[in-house]
Fold these 4 entries.
Entry 1:
Amino acid sequence: MYEHFLSSLAKKQWERIGLKRRSGVVTGLFSLYSGDSAGIGELPDLDLLADWCARAGMSIMQLLPMNDVGFDFRPYDAQSTFALDPMYLALDRLAGVDTAPFRKDLNALRKRFPAGKKRVDYRIKGAKLELLWKIFKNAAGQPPEFDRYLEDNKFWIEDYAVFKVIKDCCAQKDWEAWEPKLKARDEDAIRFFVRDNTENILFHQWMQWQLYEQFRAAKAYAAKKGVLIMGDLPFLVSRDSADVWSHQGYFKLNLSSGAPPDMYFSLGQRWGMPVYNWGNIAHHKYDYLTEKLRYAQNFYDLYRIDHVVGIFRVWTIALSEPLENAGLHGVFDPKDEKLWEEHGRTLLSIMVKNTAMLPCAEDLGVVPACSNKVLEELGIPGIEVQRWSRDWGKTYDFRKPEDYRKGAVATVATHDSTSLVMWWKFDAGTADAHLFKRKCEEKRVGFEHVRGRLFDLKKSHHGRLRWKEEITDVHTLLGILNLPEDQARDLVNLYKESYGEKERFWKYLGMEGRPGEEASPEFVRRALEKVCATASIFTTQLLQDWFSLDDFPECGDWDFRINVPGTLSDKNWSVVMPLPLEKMLKLPVNKAIKSINKKAGRA
């Protein structure tokens, strides 16, 4: 069924992991905790997650980005695409140091930052760094393994550590606000700074080595359990990052990255991270790209290529563009569509050739036609999201499981979307309010005048408008809009895409009667069975969606979602699962999850 992967460029990667139908879980380590955790999930906690995966018939644990985010805590806007975040260190398992003298400090840290609250208290990072500094100062010399680590990672480790120490000295100011010579990386200025801050720089390098040791141990344990770890490598990096500061010529600093308008984001998105100057990177034999992959394969068996369509072409917005316009006024880079296919093929081929990890591409959003062609050619799986896998522009029905791409990771939701239960409760059968309003304004239709006639406002929440049942056809819609169909094409498309969505999905699952307002465990089970039964070689689900098979009311709470794209909120990237990993291992629902995976030939 999947033999064609062995004739692709990724042949060696497929041979290494096997042509096997697999199921898995998606989560952030920040969302997990155990009885040993201090304030946040820690790398040794991955052992318990691997145990849970094995018990539930899964062989992939997919982690959200683990990169050092500084003190902003946005994993796709990291201060380094190499360095891991020290907040994930287990301080009582540090290599080459005696932590016994700090036992009281560790207990006090756990008491001050108890794990298992509804939200991560990210002040834990600063507290951990203070204690790590005390432990580091007390360490008797550095073992030879640490010296080898520094030698093996010369490409990035010193630049990263120097960047971190300068930020500490500059009250965390962005590097573009530093003293001019440090900002411009004047050789003499950097040399004098390193001379005067040797110990602090060594401290940041030492923490990265400790993370390396603990993560490698977690990967080895998962392998013993037959579980592969899938990493998530952000496509872009923060403008205020060690990467951009140390390789300023590798980025177009006059531009911001983003995404064009779509049905979910009417103004598009403006992310703020700079776009790559691929010409300059190519001139240096793609060292930045290949070194990043070389380091990541210490920890991962597979990796998610974040926003893979950006590798073909990325949406760019001039920094002079007003922030309130988001991504509305942008252009693609490269501008010439004829260059996209070869541009993407070149970069993806380099990625495949320079790592043992199997890439899996996140190909969502506005996808260029060449994307699927190149991914299939190279043997790179894409992603199929159940709610968006439909016969668009024709029947709008949900695609049958056997019609999913074989080269794909099938899922019911992503970390950027609502979970399955939330989608059903808040999103299914709705139109985006901002987009609908903007389209009305373009057509000179009074939005406030038609809103109450078209939509059930009592059932409309969180910027989503639920259609009234009586808007049964396009003729009725056009009558209320008072527009001919040729002038209302955009609004008609929004209607066709969303009206009756609940009824279609209910029928797709084989449920009886009228669609319920809430997603029952039976509804969740059928949706998960459908997505696991697809032709796609892999299927991974958010931990929240697996938990929805049981009675976990948190899973239907709007605030329980991982991230709302395009927003800045302390609720993003901070949700914590409602029980510790030790209790997860004993859940009765584990048998139901394993049964679904076994039935689909994935256990």
Entry 2:
Amino acid sequence: MNKPRRYLKLGLIVVPIALINAHAAAAQAAAYSGVTNSMVLFQENCAVCHGENLGGDAQGTPLRGELRHGGSMADIIASISNGYEATGMPTWRATFTPLQIRNIAMYILETRANVDYVTSNFEVPLSIPDGEIESELHDFRLETLVDNLDPLPYSIEPLPDGRLLLTEKTKGVRIVVPDGEQSGFIRGTPQAFDDIYRLDTRLDIERGMGWLFDIVLHPNYEENGWIYLHFGDRCHDCNDLSRRSGRPVSMNKLVRGKIEDGEWIGQETIWQAEMEHYNAASDVAAGGRVAFDDAGHVYFTVGLKGGNQGVQDLSMPWGKIHRVNDDGSIPEDNPFADRDDVYRSIYTYGHRSPQGLEFDFENGELWGTEHGPRGGDEVNLLLPGRNYGWPLYSLGLDYDGTPVEYGRDLGITFELSDIEQPVVDLTPSPAVSSFIITTSEQFPEWEGDFLVGSLKARSLFRIEIENNQFVRRETLFEGIGRIRDIEQGFNGDIYLLLEHGSGGRIVRLVPVD
């Protein structure tokens, strides 16, 4: 039997996937040309003194560790532009344009932070260190609890009895026992699809649709048994776009159900977009996180599922964080609850690729993390009705090294004062992922701190925030593994979910004292 040909949709044109890969690769190459140009500029002009990997050479100093003249973007731009004649560093202002200098500075920052935009470190060997890891407040070690998971896990959720719920994006839902066995897939959950493709220029990034995302327990789970599941709802021949293209479409959907005897039962739809807004965009930037507050509301993220156009449009569901009551009804105090021309579930908008979502029960605040483009990863305090800027503005750069200014292309004017600024800007971008606000008694000195994972940088950060202001960031470890999710168990255990081409893992942070 001949294998069926796979197709994807671009605009209104349907073409074989082999042709799409070629065109998409060219488009991706253009989009990432700034990253490549940065590397070439550095290697051809700077590496002779500072080394190909910033390790220094006989003629120049290393650019690793603490930098003599400062390590911020502004500091490095000034060093390249002005030079330091007394130490033999020439000025490059007359040689390079301001854009080229900015690109070189960003490349130096990215390399110092172990950020790789081509592979995102997806295939770098995953090795969990055996010894103790020292940090400022608590020393700890990493203990592998479960390995040989699917390479693309998404979410873990601790159960009261110590077991963990696990979603694997293209496979299904499991229950795993730390240091023990995995269950088979729970029967009856929404279908997960595994027809993944990758682009030649971004082999690390999986693309497809119909994936499983976050899974969380209702705050009163022990009384009502409700489990909430966020996923990419995929359908065929279900709207005009799908019928014209002959291909499936999808959109984020939130449901709840219960698990009994290995089966998902009693499913109820909590939120679903209008069918006309289902589209052919990949689920790779679909967001998919869920969080509850202490007043019966559930929040969930819908990322860049429909492109930049629509993120600032309240009648479109993507690029938003939504809020509904736990039964799916619209809270009366939602910021747009009195309007019929919008999604009344919208809580905030202007988001690019939300990767983490948590409610701070101590202070009654909602927080989120999201990816910027080249830099501009964010930790945000999420305030009702506020605009978080994408695609009008970002503290990061576009991939070609220019400022983010898509508002001009979309015909949208705005005042910067109307854009909510991040509490924490992470530039260069470590590809920030999930996070927790820790209350673990196992790590008492971290109480109230944000433990934030990353993908490209394969690092775990501890971030101190006081009075909604950034205080400092500590790297607890770096270069170990891509952290897709982080959760705290009922007993205070802190779990990390790692993804890797050789298989995902669940590890635990164990205090050494």
Entry 3:
Amino acid sequence: MPINVYFTVHLHVFAMRTPLLGRSGMKNSEHNIAYLNGGPTNEPRSFPILHDGNELADIFAGADVGLALFDSSLALLACNSLYRTLCGYLESEAVTGRSLEDLMRITFHRLNVPDAEIKSKIEKIVTSLDRGSAYTFRYNAPSGSVVEIRRRRLPNGTVVETARQTENPVSSIDLNSQYELIAEKSRARLMHALDVMADGFALYDSSDRLVLYNKKYVDYSPLVADIIMPGVAKEEILRESVRRGAFNLNGRTPEEYISWRLQRHRNPTEPIEVLGADGRWILITEKKTDDGSIVGTRSDITELKLREMEMLRISQQLHAKNIHFDTALSNMVQGLCMFDKGQRLIVVNRRYLEIYGFSADVVKPGITLRELMEYSVSLGNYTKEEAERALTERNDPARLSQRTVLKQRLKDGRVIAVMNEPMPDGGTIATYEDITESEKAAVMMLEYTQKLERSNRELIDFAYVASHDLQEPLRKIEAFGDRLQKKYGDILPDDGKMFVDRMHNAASRMRRLINDLLSYSRITTNAKPFQWISLNELVTEVQSDLQIRIEENSAIIESNDLPKIECDATQMRQLIQNLVSNALKFRKPDQTPIIKIHGELQNSAIVGTPKNLIVTISDNGIGFDNSFKEQIFTIFQRLHSRNEYEGTGIGLATCRKIVERHGGTIEASGIQGEGSTFKFTIPQTQSTKEIAA
């Protein structure tokens, strides 16, 4: 009875060829890994265990294909004559007990396969005969026929072969070559897929030894590239990496770092980030498979990490700035609040809440301006009508687009200065300052200033009236003195003549004093409008007026080219004449007086204001103690007695008043025995409104 045996062949090849790169980048070695596994799609029928060889031979003899049965040790149990014929075996060669290896060796010899290759080929074939595996191949048998062999190893280890003649041509490649070709193609496809990966890839078996990896995996560990190969333990790679300084240990000891990495490797959960000694950040992601293997990937996240650290740095800076901003807001002496274009509160500080007595639970970001005003009305800061008026003004487009300053007068009498500043996005920022005390001080200052102005006018009027009214009795004293001297001068005793002379001298001093007082008071009461004049011409006129005194003292007056200015010409002439006269008066008797007049224009420190004229008048006279440089400008103040130097003590006070009327300042400096310097500074042009004297 014929026996049909069906074989289904499943061949799974898992192989790779991985070049390992050392530090020099050159290929050091080549590793081949092949793993075969397979099994039938349907369980085959089991052969009966027969102890009668003749019965088994009878069964095989009736088969329409060549049949051979080998036990689990690959020893031949039985075969039929068709099997011997198709495979080219002699009856004495294919006998019970003959091993499959011996039969394959006979076949290879007859196919003229070199002896050096036979052993390796047989080993590969035997190795592939795992229990439950099967495969089919064709070859030109020694009989000359194209024979198709189906070889299958059953789960119990028994091997069944069937042989039949086929008309299909046989490939020139034998079984082993076919196997290698398939394996090589599988390896090529696998390695191409792995090598084009952007990440490093590695597979460790359940014993934690490296099975499979790609080139990128080696690139991420250049310091230990020479030891990365199949079969090496993960711990060995890790320890050598630490020893060679491949990682930043982040303060851990080498053993602590290795223990941490191995624990995370063998019990993978979340990905970990590792910093390499070369500055690269590597993200390691590992998963455990069902059979205990570990598959992992490595990704270069350096750029991502740098961006992350930069974002962290920026975030920390912003956080610090926010802290500084909050601190600054909290410590401002002014209240501050900011509204968006929808009039909703964005920012508010503590001082603003204190000024209006607001609760931080009510006045906080998000509250509208109307709600805030209604809350303020409820606290009694101002009336509802005042709040509505303020809201109307606040929502005026013209006011929203420009800075506005106003004063709020609260019900409790306080005055709040409010400055609203528009923002580019349509919102506003406002500052609030309690100016109640300064307002009170301003009112008091205004009242005080008005009192001073009245008092000053009264004094000026008094000085003018008094000096004018003193003229008449003074003239009588001088007139009667002259008559007394002319009519009775010859008969007066010496004492009488002395008394008359002293009366005349006193009257003359009184006359000069009255004239100087009149001149001082007229700086304001008899002032003339400002006009443009040439200072060069004015200095020439002063020298002409003082020509006799200049010639008497052989004085030398030097002056540079002076600019034109806008001023009261009479007063400016009086100012320069007083200062030059002063230099002539306080000359050294044994030295020629030298008086230097120098003037120049300088830009003002305040942008948009006119240039300043600075005039310096210096001499080589007797000078003065510099500690009295302010005192000499006080009216009636003298540094010398009338017996030493004539004068009323009003001249320099008049000079200061003239300079102040022109919006300037005057100062003096001196060195005893060397000379004095007077410097006054006034604007080159005057405003239409004169400065009050």
Entry 4:
Amino acid sequence: MKKKYRLIVDILIIVMVVLTTFASVNVNASAPYTTRTVNRYGEVIETQGAYDPIQNIQEFIKDGEVETFKGPKDLFIDSEDYFYVCDTGNKRIVVLDKSWTYVTEFGSSDLIQPNGIFVRDEFVYVADFGDALDNSSGKIAIYNFDKENKVATLDRTYSRPSGALMEVDDFLYRPMKIAVDKNYTMYIVSHGSSNGVLLVNSENRFLNFFAPNSSTGTFIDLVKKYFYGENENVILTKKIAPAPENVMLDDSGYIYTVTQTIVQNGLGDTLKKVNIGGLNFYSNEMIVSSDFVDSWASHHKTIYALTAGGTISEYDIEGNLLLSFAGRRKNDDQLGLFQSASAIAVASNDDLYVVDDTAGSIQVFRKTEFTFNVHNALELYISGKYEESKGLWEEVLRYNSMFDLAHKGIGMAYYLERDYTKAMEKFEIANAKEEYSEAFWEARNIWIMQNITKVAIVLVGLFVVVIVVSKTNKRYHYLEFVTGPIKRFSERPKVKSILVMFKFIRHPMDAVYYVRYDKRIKLYNAFIVLALVVGIYLLSLVFTGFLFTDVVLEKTILLKELTKVILPIVLFIVSNYLISSLMSGEGSFKSIAINTMGSLMPIVVVMPWIILVSNALTLNEGFLYYFPLVVMFMWTGVLLFVVIKETHNFSVKKTIVNFLLTALMMFVLIIAIILLYLVFAQLFGFFVDMFKEVIFRG
């Protein structure tokens, strides 16, 4: 019995061990960071995991001994997956193969402070910062690496490039990073070089500065420059452009630079994609970081950019942020996080290798199924194979239904299939306005071709009916039962007083006269027009064509939108009344309010038509939308000037002064409102805290 009991217990233990083993195999530890992307509104949001950290390499075996890196600053991976590690602290370059097996090392007797490395054919270029105390010790060391014999020999070294500009300015040459093109022209980042990357030929002759960053100045600097010009006696603050931090080349001949400088709202140009002519193909307001340290171009035409804090950002060919992940380590040693990142490189199998110089390690990231589909779909998309990429994009949407690039890719597939309606739906989701415009153009043309005859018949028929009815009604008056009540209704005193507001459109001076002397025109006329203006503004938010609005309805706050319209109008009326009273203006508060609202009548009359037309235009026809919009606001501005002038019986000069002082008073009132809000907010907080104190301690 005991033996049978013991056998059952042993079997149960074995089963539990087996289940535990299988469970540990199938469960993956989640990454210690979140992956982010950008939605259609330009907001950075969390998305599906894109890369998993799989390994942290801190050592390698050399001649049977364990070796470690010391402060590595750069890493290069060639086409055969040889790893060239710039082991700065040990003053050497370490070469490892794709299995991370030691191959060779070199430079310990030649290099002082190697910071950057680039491999072109059999040559290994090393940017040596040199001795911090010796300004002439910076150099480029070029090694010839024989892979077959696993031997690297020093081919030549280049100190400061020759050239008049280098010698005249006594240029301080401190090479930090280097890239080399197919012609062996060197692109060198020298520490503190605000003029940009040094372009140096294969004979070490300086050619030019390349891809400089722009300097920034304040409004005060511009004023000084305007008044003082080039006067050397006037000391102006010198604005120095930030120096590039790193440089990289891709197989297409594009040069990528990263810069560490201040960015506003996460937007800037600290990552650039530059052609040989110096033209930046990326937007000056792309989503970037202020502390980029390195970049790498993948064969998928995507670009990886690395920050000093360890955040890795991946961009598409146009500079749109696809994914952002990893980051800085806070406490424990966590795989996927860094103390201080310094370099990034990508192997042929798409694994990412990121150097942590402080920890002396290299971490490896592998892409997930989600990213695998994104890359494959992106390659087809870039090649113009939209229909072939459709299935992959649909698979991407299975992971993340709001991945905008996938919607755009599927939209392009529908476009080629001539299903323009579905294409427009996808482009609208992705906020791809240019593509939406093209699809809408095609869909509209098809509709016109199918319905042009019907539309022409209807229009001609309506025209004939209107002419016939107009002619016959003058003789037989059979529409009297309709026109009679309308005429009698419009003759009512209150209705007539309201209709006076339409006189402002064509005869503003007559309208001001009516407001001044006709006692039947009440203040509620102004409120009626205000309600109409607010209503039309809200209609514009909802019904303006997709191509001509950036409004996000689900994120729109009604109270905020009402404030945008009502507050400026109320502030203007109040401010103008206060200023005009001091300037002996003849207008009362009532007349100022009514006349001001009367000047807004062009908005009431024209804006609904503009909203309607916006839904029938493409981007190429945007002039037909923006021109009447500009005319409407100019018309409104002229009417406002005229009615204020006539209301107060001012001269033109005095009216201009009145407007300037009114604007100043509006600014003062805004400041006063803000101060009052802060005071009442503090008082409210004080009473709330006091109430809580009484309740909880009572």
